[in-house]
Amino acid sequence: MHKRFVAIWFRHLTTDWLALKRPALQHLPFVFAAKDHSRLIIMAANRLAEAQGVFPGMAAADAKAIIPDLQVIDDIPGQAAKLLKALGEWCIRYTPIIAVDLPDGLILDVSGCTQLWGGEQAYLQDIVKRLRSKGYDVRAAMADTIGAAWAIARFGRVTPVIESGGQATALLPLPPAALRLQPAVVQRLQKLGLYQVSSFISMPRSVLRRRFGEDLLLKLSQALGREEEIIQPLVLIEPYHERLPCLEPISTAAGISIAIQRLLENLCKRLMEEGKGLRTAILKCYRVDGRIEQAEIGTNRATCNVHHLFRLFELKIAAIEPALGIELFTLEAPKVEAVSPLQEALWAGKPGLDDLGVAELLDRLAGKVGADAIHRYLPDEHYWPERSIKAAASIREKPAIPWRSDRPRPVRLLARPEPVEVTAPIPDYPPMLFIYKGKRHAVKKADGPERIEREWWLEEGDHRDYYNVEDEEGQRYWLFRSGHYEGEQGNKWFLHGFFA
């Protein structure tokens, strides 16, 4: 794909920002100044101050002599970088590849992004118009190279859109400073009467290198497209990432659903071709007012099933607030895994957790009640009931040991045994009745005791004698007596679990 770049120049970046923040300053000349040894030096001036001859680099005392009522405000270190980062993130609606160009610009790689705006001219005009409507004084240009776009944005006087291959002609009438050269090099060129790029562009490279250094040759080659210039994107694009710009802002649930469906189809097609499936996906909706609505889903196993993934996102649509409309949708898959094609069975079996339907059901439940509400447990290598199970890290985790099947165990085990009042014969008979949470349960059937000794290498304490009991309503419980029978002194009894 042929490369195209846009350079945006914020002519009064920090002063425009402050004027937006403090509207009273919009009609007053003011500057940002910082101390340099014992002097206050102007770092930035607004448009009204510049119109009266005040520029960055000037001493604040000299500026006050020119404009007596000039407002001098302390400079905020790092504010320009912070503003450019925020503006760059806003510009992601135009292209996913954006770089900050300190101290006052942005570089956009717009290759293949202009068609939805009706061409390059309309694309550039839309960017400039919307940034100006926000209160920023901007200029922008488009060219095949970053250097040419940067030069035309700041020094161009004709068209801001340079036709493909026309960067050399566009650079000829511009001053040497348009090549982003060091001030010392620019001064040396001007002393020799080289006031335009056309004055030295045809000189032998050896002459230019000897007189002005390697940097001039590098900048010239980059601007002409002879050497590639690398930019560091502001937002790193996920390897699996899809974008869907909208010709008109989307503000209905139906429109959002269609957008999600198209993004999933494109993303899953690519994942399927590479033998992968997503585990997490993040939908971002860029609104007209600059805010970003976000929805995230996760799956228990890697999948590229568009229908299933759409049903998960469908649960999130109601929480997306389009406001005046959404103009860009993006879908990222930050976590993907390899998937194996499912083997077709000749007869039905009991696949259990390997059943794709079970995994998809868990995904939908997680979307409704939250993944934290769903738990899976595996057997652990401990005798003590509280430590005999552990939470599984995922649905795919395999147990290290088999479940114990020689003794019955309750389906639901309480995290902490709860005390109950029990009437029981002596010495090892099961209880005749027990009272739990104020309710009396008469025991009709019972089995036990099963003695479980405490793990002495971990802690000290009494053993437990467990009984499986069934009350008059058919409900089954797991009770235990702590320690040996104590006769008339009584014993401590506890309820520890419930059978299905």
- Estimate nothing, just give the exact number of structural domains: 4
CATH topology of the largest domain: MutS, DNA mismatch repair protein, domain I
Q: Overall mean pLDDT score?
A: 88
Give the count of helical stretches. 13
The rough form would be described as elongated
Parts with pLDDT < 50 across at least 5 consecutive residues:
343-348
- Strands of the widest sheet, in order across it, are 14-15-16-17-18-19
Strand content: 25-35%
Structural class: alpha+beta
What value does the Rg take, in angstroms? 36 Å
CATH class of the largest domain: Alpha Beta
Q: Tell me about the largest β-sheet.
A: 6 strands, antiparallel, barrel
Report, as a whole number of angstroms, the end-to-end distance. Answer: 64 Å
Architecture (CATH level 2) name of the largest domain: 3-Layer(aba) Sandwich
**Count of strand segments:** 19
Polypeptide structure, described:
The chain has 500 residues and is α+β, with helices and mostly antiparallel strands. It has 4 domains: 5-155, MutS, DNA mismatch repair protein, domain I (3-Layer(aba) Sandwich); 167-224; 241-338, Dna Ligase, domain 1 (2-Layer Sandwich), CATH 3.30.1490; 412-498, no CATH class. Helix content is 27%, strand content 29%. The chain has 13 helices and 19 strands. The protein has helices at residues 13-21, 47-51, 60-66, 79-90, 120-133, 146-155, 167-171, 183-191, 205-212, 214-224, 253-273, 306-314, 356-369, and strands at residues 5-10, 30-36, 39-45, 71-74, 97-101, 105-109, 138-143, 241-250, 276-287, 292-303, 326-338, 377-379, 389-391, 412-423, 433-436, 439-452, 464-471, 476-482, 492-498. The strands form 5 sheets. Strands 14-15-16-17-18-19 form a 6-stranded antiparallel barrel. A hairpin with a 2-residue loop joins strand 2 and strand 3 (39-45). Helix 12 (306-314) packs parallel to helix 13 (356-369). The radius of gyration is 36 Å and the shape is elongated. Residues 343-348 have low confidence and may be disordered.
